[in-house]
Amino acid sequence: MMRYVARLSNAARSFWRGWDEQDLVHLGQKLYDPAAYEGGVLRITEREYRALPEYNRRIMATTPGAVFHPLLVWVGRRGLRQSRRAA
């Protein structure tokens, strides 16, 4: 019963935030993969774009002296955006 409630809770949380942990994993892989950048622009999904602030927050919390760098991203169905990436 508790596992069912936990799964339901995780599904509700993912729906509310608009992303889940898998989106953070994919975002991290794309950020460090040079092949993901086409002409200096990173192509990501909307869910990965919504997960970017949490990714930055986690990097800033675990890496002392981390700074933000500008990043051009092409977000599916939203177009070109300028964002920031912690590194």
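Above is the first protein from milestone M3; the second protein from the same milestone is given next.
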Amino acid sequence: MSFDMLNRLVTRAFFFGAFLLLLLGVLDRIAEVFGATLPLLGRYTPGRLLEFSAILLIFVIALLLRQIREELKKRG
């Protein structure tokens, strides 16, 4: 497995993980409006899940910028 393939795999995994955390945070916030909570989240609040999602997206952006830089090096 090449580094480029691994990079793409990690980027996709982080992106979908961030999207899942965002979705769970939104669902938990909606559940709180109705007086319930999602028991699988434990002690994490919706805001904390949003923070984790943003951290993963920062890594995704960094990995995508690295891919762009490598492509520009190949062409130039």
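Note on the second protein: The mean pLDDT is 91.
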